[in-house]
Amino acid sequence: MLKNKSIAFKLIFFILLSSALIFSVMFGYDYWMSRNIILKKVRENAATLTSATVNRIQTVLTAAERTPKNTASFLASSHFSDHDLLNLLKNIVETTPEIYGAAIAFEPYLFDKNRLHYAPYYYKQGDSIKFTWLGGTDYQYHLFDWYLIPRVLGKAIWSEPYYDEGAGNIVMTTFSVPFYKELNGKRTFMGVVTADISLDWLQKLISNIRIYDHGYGFLISQTGSWITHPLQDLMMNETIFSTAEWRGDDQLRRIGRDMIQGGSDFILIRSLVYDQPHWIYYMPIPSNGWSVGVSIPQNELMADLNRLLRNLIIIAVLAVCFLFAGITVIAESITRPLRALVKVTKRVATGDLETPIPGADIGDEVGQLADAFVHMTHSLKSYIHNLTETTAAKERIESELKIAHDIQKGILPKIFPPYPEKKELDIYATLQPAKEVGGDFYDFYFVDDRHLCFTIGDVSGKGVPASLLMAVTTTLLKAKAGPNATPDQVLARVNSDLCEEQQSNMFVTAFFGILNIYSGQLTYCNAGHNLPYMLTKENGVVRFQKSKTLVLGVFDHFPYTTFESVLQPRECIFLYTDGVTEAMNIRSELFNEDRLESLLRQYASLPAKDLIEKVAQSVHVFESGAPQADDITIVAIRWNGSET
Amino acid sequence: MKPLLKWIVIALFLTAPVTGQPPLKKISFLPHWLPQAQFAGIYMAEDLNIFRQHGLEVTIQRGGPNEPPLPALMKGKVDLTSVFLFQGLEAAGRGKPLVNIAQIGQRAALMLVAKKTTGIEEPRDMAGMYLGVWQGFELLPLAFFKKYTIRMHLISAASPINLFLREGIAVTTAMRYNEYHTILASGLNADELVTFNFSDLGLDFPEDGLYCLADTYESRPDVCEAFTAAVLQGWRAAFAQPDRAIESVRRRMLAAHVPYSPAHQYWMLKRMQDIILPQEGNHTMGALKESDFLSVGNMLIETGAITTVPPFSAFYKGKKHAEK
After folding, report:
1. Which of A27, A101, B228, B229 is deepest in the core (most CB within 10 A)?
2. Is any Cβ of chain B less than 8 angstroms from the Cβ of A172?
3. B283–A contact, CB cutoff 8 A
4. CB-based contact, B168 to chain A, within 8 Å
5. Chain A: closest CA distance from residue B229 (Å)
6. In what helix (H) or strand (E) does residue A389 lie, and over which residues does it extend?
7. Is residue B17's pLDDT more than 50?
8. What pLDDT, on a 0 to 100 scale, did the predictor assign at position A377?
9. Interface contact B259-A237, CB threshold 8 A
């Protein structure tokens, strides 16, 4: 993905990514640790606050419990009159500030055999103390919780909170203590002493709990009823469980169960009031199993931390921006000369070696690279200079070779027919060099008015040296031939000169003949050359006689031998070099003597020129596609007889 | 008021006796308990003007523990009231001149509830244990004891639920639509409880019914029938528009300073639907089946509450149960 991106991009991408990661990890860890520390502190503070609240409530409840408990003990152990009872009760309500009202309710017919209900009740109303009798057909008090539950359980209880309409719609709870007496030797339940206490103060106490801006306290009863909660609709209407059901909040139900079972915990919930995460801490009131909770808004709890984190993030973003700018500058300082170098290199690649290369004066790696480029262009310039010189030299040599070729061609007879006045002769020759200048040669010339000397040869090797030696050889051959010289003498003299003068281990094959154009007498000598063919009438195509022979320029004083023969009119001498028979096709097959002889037989009667062209064409066809390996030289001399 | 509008109003007043409805017949009704969704149909009949549509002007009195319905009816403080079938039939069996004009509840919502920790698995396991019951409803557990031939310690209470929650009693009676939900809303989970529906115990005694004095019915049968029809229509409206019904209930509960919990009232309305329009069994909405009448009559005789059961036709004046 990043493969094709620029170095600057990669640098910026990886460094910024790494920095962002490092910042995230650092801040994340810092936030997490700080959060835990804050939560730990808040938990401790919430526990302290809740515990203090619980203690305050407990103190009031304990104080409220004391009087009815003492009264119950007194009733159990004493004899008392109607009057005593009412005074006692009135005194309780008068002297105990926590107690709103108090009753002593007896079992049916136990205090007074004539009265089903006997329950005097004193209660406060404003600043005065009022009295009433509880019980009647529409209020059978022994069926109600405040009486029935302590009777059945045999122990003092705090009732569930309730609205007391008579007392001005305030929330009350009643503490009921059963009392017993020995009757006929049997411990008998006599009734209960009750003390009503208003929960007004308790609601105010809890309502006044303020934690941060939106924290609050709440209180639930033993069955989960909301006694105090900021949501007025919940108070005394709902239980924590019905609220949980209504809101589909299972967590709230679990917390409620833990609360009414006397549990204590610090836990994150969604606030019922603000619909935001709140931490709540709750703990039970020992006396009555109610549970006090405080609810602390998490966002306010974490406000400082969040502010810190926000500032850190801003700093981090600024740092990353700064980093971005820094990396961009550095990356630019690296890549700008690189880009310039790329541009220059492209120009260098098109051949502009004079372009100045920037950045070589910088000391860093980029500078070194630029320096290397400077060296490279210098080397290239020097190389191109040399190459230009070499090419010029080569061109000169080639031009000289061309001249040599022309000279070589000039050496050879090239006007056909060479002796148009000599009707006895039909001569034709061709030389096709493999390279610009070849080693093959042929020649013919009259040494007197009747003797035609002719020669064909091949210098070992090719190119300029071969052509030079060829030029020497043809010159020598011409020089050494004379009216009285026999072919063996000519070749021996040439051989002697070549052996003497040339040191280059090159040699020359040559066939040298002299034809008397009037008699048809032929003398010839061979020096290591391919034996020519004689195209005769009687015997067809025959080769010249084979003899002991040696190439020229190898061994001085070799005894060359002259042979003699007589041509019949219209017979033809066919001379060639090994370029003909050793011509090779693409399958590496040689043209060979058989193929040549077959051609000669086929075209024996053709004029010399046509014969040579046929043979040359056949060799070309044979060679087609393959490069010409050697010079191809063919000479044909037909003697038409002296009479013609 | 603009002159034209004034004349239109005057014209309407003048034409009303000629073209309008006959005057509304006044009647009063006392529900047998405090306002709650148990009476949602009646409140809907009032709030949606269903009573008026039936030609009635109904005064609904505030019920509750301070106003027991049967004495109020006998004393003529109210024209119509609602009580359980066994209560109405017991009164009739004792010679009180009252008649049933509609049987609203078709099945029993009464149930027994105990904590699983008591080890109770079947009814007989409850033998010897303490059972809480509302004062005045003791006949129902007695019928249960008789049927299962067990004895339990019966504790009468104004409401036995707190006593049950504080484990003063092992078993409590509860109405499925009310106290059972109160127990759940006090922190006990359903899977921690073992329950027995009276309807499953072979004691499926229908409950809420509408009653009036025999005289009232004889002198104003059309009013009684119109009232029944309106109440049944009110119930159908309540089941069709539960939110509207609960709003009617809520308003009355707040006015009566009765704790209002939407979760509890919606639960109650749904359970009322279960017993007023049961999905199973052969029931006609608002009608008393003679078989139910007889089984409650037998229960009353067996428990010794009454000695004779009045004739069905004398006791029940409502619409006929239609056999399906």
Report:
1. A101
2. no
3. no
4. yes
5. 33
6. helix A365-411
7. no
8. 85
9. yes
Query: What's the whole-number average pLDDT of chain B?
Result: 92
Domains parsed from chain B with CATH numbers: 25-107+206-315 (3.40.190.10), 110-197 (3.40.190.10)
Q: What would the pLDDT profile of B237-258 be if each residue is shown by its tens digit?
A: 999 999 999 999 999 999 988 8
CB atoms B264 and A242 under 8 Å: yes
Q: Scan residues 239-298 of A and list those with Cβ closer than 8 Å to B.
A: 239-243, 245-246, 253, 256-257, 260-261
Looking at CA atoms only, how far is residue B99 from chain A in angstroms?
25
Mean pLDDT of the B267-274 span = 97
Query: Mind spelling out the 3-state secondary structure of chain B?
Result: CCHHHHHHHHHHHHHHHHHCCCCCEEEEEECCCCCCHHHHHHHHHHHCCHHHHCCEEEEECCCECCECHHHHHHCCCCCEEEEEHHHHHHHHHCCCCEEEEEECCCCCCEEEEEEHHHCCCCHHHHCCCEEEEECCCCHHHHHHHHHHCCCCEEEEECCCHHHHHCCCCCEEEEECCCHHHHHHCCCCCHHHEEEEECCCCCCCCCCEEEEEEHHHHHHCHHHHHHHHHHHHHHHHHHHHCHHHHHHHHHHHHHHCCCCCCHHHHHHHHHHHHHHHCCCCCCCCCECCCHHHHHHHHHHHHHCCCCCCCCCHHHHECCCCCCCC
CA distance from start to end of chain B: 59
Tell me how far apart the alpha carbons of residues B264 and A43 are, in angstroms, rounded to a whole number. Answer: 34
Which residue of A152, A169, A241 is in closest CB contact with B185?
A: A241
Give the nearest partner residue to B156 out of A143, A153, A256, using CB atoms: A143
Least confident of A452-461, A465-474, B124-133, B297-306: A465-474
Distance from CA of B137 to the nearest CA of A (A): 13
Cα–Cα distance, A453 to A575 (Å, whole number)? 13
B162 contact residues in A (CB cutoff 8 A): 145, 149, 159-160, 223
Please state, for a pLDDT cut of 70, what percent of chain B lies above it: 93
Residue B18's pLDDT is 46
Q: Give the total residue count for chain A.
A: 644
Q: B184 and chain A: CB distance < 8 Å anywhere?
A: yes
Question: Are A75 and A193 within 8 A, CB to CB?
Answer: yes
Residue of B nearest to A143 (CA): B157
User: Chain A residue with minimal CA distance to B167?
Assistant: A153
Q: Three-state SS string across A275-296, please?
A: CCEEEEEEEECCCCCCEEEEEE
* Residue B5 forms contact with A (CB below 8 Å): no
**In this predicted model, what pLDDT tens digit does every residue of A396-442 receive, in sequence order?**
888 887 787 777 777 788 888 888 888 888 999 998 877 666 678 89
Average pLDDT, chain A: 88
**How far, in Å, CA of B241 to CA of B239, rounded?**
6
Per-residue pLDDT for A503 more than 80?
no
Find residues 315-334 of chain A whose CB sits inside 8 Å of chain B. none
Answer whether A155 touches B (CB < 8 Å). no
CA nearest to A159 within chain B: B162
Q: Give the model's pLDDT for residue A135.
A: 86
Among the partner residues A143, A153, A242, nearest to B185 by beta-carbon distance: A242
Q: Which residues of B97-110 are buried (b: 16+ CB within 10 A; e: fewer)?
A: bbbbbbbbbbbbbb
- Percent of chain B residues past pLDDT 90, beyond the cut: 85
Question: What pLDDT, on a 0 to 100 scale, did the predictor assign at position B16?
Answer: 47
Contact at 8 Å (CB) between A339 and A369? no
Contacts of A253 in chain B (CB under 8 A): 187
pLDDT of residue B21: 67
Interface contacts A/B by beta carbons within 8 Å: 81
| Domains annotated on chain A, with CATH | 79-198 (3.30.450.20), 351-411 (no CATH), 415-639 (3.60.40.10)
